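Sample entry (110 residues):
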Amino acid sequence: MISDVDLAARMRELVAATEAGSSLPDAARAFVEAVTFADADAILAGLRGELAADWMAMPVWARNPAFRLACLQRPDDPVLLREAAGDLLSFGPDWDDAAHALEQRADEIA
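Predicted structure, serialized as tokens:
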């Protein structure tokens, strides 16, 4: 998991890069805005469709927050929690602890 200090540092880096004239690609900015305000059904439909078409095409930096937002909207959905955990385990070991916590939560509510 990322610490509050690391998150603050990354936010400062983003602000500094933006002030220096760097910007996110339009597609990345549009994705962040769309996924932020989407409901879980829309997020999952998008994820599942894109991952079925080309499992490696969607970058981890996009799929992790998409799954996270869906899980936050459906914290009692064991199928979703396991799906998100499986995706995290595919790109670990950085997120293995978070994945195991999702699996444990899914087992508790199933």
